[in-house]
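Quick one:
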Amino acid sequence: METGLLGPRLQGKSAIVTGASTLIGTAVCERLVAEGAAVTLADVDESGADAADRLGAAALFVSTDVTDERAVQECVDRAVRHGGGVNVLVNIASTYIDGGLAAKKEDWLTSYSVNVVGGVLMLAAVVPHMRERGGGAVVNFSSVSAERAQRGRWLYSATKAAVRQVTRSAAMDLAPDGIRVNSVSPGWIWSRPIAARAAQDRGVANTVAAPLTLSRRIGSPEEVAAAVAFLCSDDAAYINGTDLAIDGGYLAMGPERADEPWSLTELETDDKGDQ
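Output:
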């Protein structure tokens, strides 16, 4: 796996990754370890323990419910013991509860609790340790859904838009401490929800994603992980309070999708006034 031009970019750093048991979360953990970091994998899904075992001594799994303040603090305490502190936080933990208009109040509260508040609780717990180390880097997971209307998706899209605003506000407040806070917005990425819809067939997923992306395919968890590792490193030292789309060009397109049969340049007419 390629790392920075001068070698591992996170050598000696300590990171926490929430939602580490997901396909994307595991890929992020693998990349951060490859970049030299000690990584604490946090998730309610204990299959993350297997990923930690595969990654060796640099990785530690901690069963963590990000909506539980006590569990969050225990995770951070163990990460400090594991890595000697905390330099990096990657907030991936998310719930896909939705239902649009039919969603119940409890669904809304759960969605915000996991997707927004959980990341804030984790950030609040790591900030004192980042200050001790003279700064740090935080990457929150938003989504392209924060910018596009999608049928039946009210809760998820609203919470992911909220993540971006929290990111901007946190970046402003924590900049004096040398703590950078950015977000990423993945688009069509091979993940468990998409794999389930595609019957575990990546070819099917590519077919669906092709007209929706300039890259003409679905993205990989490893491509997301590479972008996250960059934002966590000193190579991104001048990047703060912004969102990076990892979407193969999804957000760049308007109604003219990648499979549009006509382009405007082809719609020529003899009447030059009718353009």
